[in-house]
Amino acid sequence: MRELAEVLLRGPSTLSSAERETIAAFVSAGNDCTFCRDSHRAAAAHHQHGDYSVVDAVVSDYQTAPISEKLRALLAIAAKVRQGGLLVTRAEIAQARACGATDLELHDTVLIAAAFCMFNRYVDGLATWTPTDPEAYDRMGQRMAHQGYTGGSQAQRQAEVAGPGEPPT
Amino acid sequence: MMTSLYLPGVEANPQPGTYRSLIQAAKDRNAEYSKIWDLFAFQESFTVHLARFTHGVLREPATISPGFRELIAAYTSSLNECAFCTRAHAAAAAELLGDEALVSSVLRDRDRSLLDDREKALLAFVEKVTKNLAAVREHDVEALRAAGWDDEAIYYTITTCALFNLYNRWITATGVPEMSADGHRQQGRTLAARGYTRD
Asked: Which pTM value belongs to this model?
């Protein structure tokens, strides 16, 4: 599953990794998946020098967030995909295209939104232990942004969650 | 002429590889093919991992049979109103379970189906994970354990359900059309016989 995240969020695309991580955090927020929302929120921020303001604005209201009209149109598609793929129609696609989105970008958006509807269910369905310390997410986000999803050891991931000086549980 | 996808840029740009060859071979024979291949051919760097993952989730040996996992796939797809996936995985489930009547009964009405109570409880959990994820709690999993499902079966159930929440959205949002009844029957046989990896 980590390879899927790596290709989707960090592989070649005309959408930046910051934009793709923002879509991931936005969809996860819609699904109430705290772990995915906060970790991908942090990854989006660390693709922008640690600045959380844009991703936070998108998660709270993407309609008014300071982003390009193209990304806003893609987020509208992502929101529909999250609620149900049938809500995406040829007309919705045409509208996003009019805002400058290419078919590749539309496909990336659909796939990222769909994939997070999987990841969110995997995490919450398995009731994965969810950390509550915001700094744990910040450390995760730094690694996700700079090292990616397939690097790093299990021990490193546990240490991020436990924090420095605390034994991993 | 088959119905086109919503994203012509995807359909027109298959990357060299297994799926492009499959599509070309079907076109050469003027045969119907599964339009999901257009999606798989477009971004092989992703779909090669997805196919391998799908094969593992649905076919790895586990305490819940591949046939029942295909039924979970079909049931999840019916909840998400993805006609293509519902028919594809209902056909694969019917092949593997050797019981088409059982599969149809589940898709018609889970609670009055031919499943036993323990199986109905598992599918009720699948419905909750699909439709009301935020309400899923540890006690839902405890109830399945109490009904006699082990952790491995529960793990594969959740993973199958989660995976089809990806497929259903990807397929409906890009406009992958259903195939003919015969096309789905054929595909069900192929999926039952060889699974999801093409390499």
From this structure: 0.92
**Phi, psi of B4, rounded to the nearest 5 degrees:** -90, 160
Please provide the DSSP assignment of A66-111 as one string.
Answer: SS-HHHHHHHHHHHHHHH-GGG--HHHHHHHHHTT--HHHHHHHHH
Query: How many Å separate Cα B153 from the centre of its chain?
Result: 17
Chain B, 19 to 78: residues with Cβ < 8 Å from chain A are: 42-43, 45-46, 49-50, 53
Give the residue from A81, A104, A122, A150 with the most B CB atoms within 10 Å of its CB, the best one to mutate: A122
Instruction: Tell me B16's DSSP state.
Output: S
pLDDT tens by residue, B81-124: 999 999 999 999 999 999 999 999 999 999 999 999 999 999 99
Shortest alpha-carbon distance between residue A82 and chain B (Å)? 8
Phi, psi torsion values for B165, nearest 5 degrees: -70, -25
Query: Which ipTM score applies to this complex?
Result: 0.94
